[in-house]
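Re-running TRAM domain-containing protein to confirm reproducibility after the cluster update. Everything else is unchanged from the original entry.
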Amino acid sequence: MEVPAEISAVRLARRVGKRMTVLVDEIDEQGAVCRSYADAPEIDGMVFVADAEGLQVGDFVEVEITASDEHDLWGERV
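Result of re-run:
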């Protein structure tokens, strides 16, 4: 793993277990593709939420982060 990716993975892993409000950017067959206030569209990582029932693009939703990798986060709605 390259040093920047390793640093990113460590930083994102610190968010696991924390709650955050995310913005829904799109809904697909796997759920909602979201981003946090600190993430620029098409540049930064995403927050993936499997349970997108009732969500629409543009909604804000509270999630608890459950997993991470060097670029993205996964969360569950709370």
